[in-house]
Design brief:
Elements: H1 3-8, H2 12-20, H3 23-30, H4 39-59, H5 64-85, H6 87-90, H7 103-147
Helix pairs in contact: 2-5, 3-5, 4-5, 4-7, 5-7
């Protein structure tokens, strides 16, 4: 078993697949199919991290918080890539401008800011979901220990 798999409880392909559960929202949002504040958008925001948490509670890796933070960071990478690939579709009237900067420089500044923001957002989603996963894994462990019969003397 590889070191990351021992520490995180899952191999890299599974971690990437878990992160990819959140990718449809990026695509649907950037294409204007799903709008902020709708039930569908809410589900696309909440269900993937809930799946991350459920997978970690089920699998019980050694470091549940770290596992979900890694999934969130991978989601951030997918989020950044999605926004970059769908940049023109997200701004059908043309991308926003940055003051008096020439368009190429302004685009570079905005795209860089969007990428950094995506990485931070994904990681923070992982931190919040990781905290919930850590709490739940501890509660489940406590419940399992409470259900075990006491050793006889």
């Amino acid at each position: 078993m590889s070191a990351p798999r021992r520490a995180l409880g899952f191999g890299w392909p599974v971690l990437v697949l878990l992160a990819a559960l959140a990718a449809p929202r990026v695509v649907l949002h950037d294409l204007g199919v799903v709008e902020e504040g709708t039930l569908v958008n809410g589900l696309l925001v909440v269900v993937p991290p809930a799946c991350w948490i459920a997978a970690v509670v089920w699998r019980r890796p050694r470091r549940p918080f770290l596992t979900v933070v890694v999934i969130g960071a991978l989601y951030g990478v997918l989020l950044a890539a999605g926004h970059q690939l769908l940049w023109d579709a997200a701004f059908p009237g043309g991308p926003p401008t940055v003051g008096r900067l020439d368009p190429a420089t302004g685009a570079a500044v905005l795209r860089t800011a969007a990428a950094v923001s995506s990485l931070v957002t994904g990681t923070l989603v992982g931190v919040v979901a990781g905290a919930v996963a850590l709490l739940l894994t501890r509660l489940v462990r406590t419940e399992l220990e409470a259900d075990r019969p006491a050793p006889s003397s």
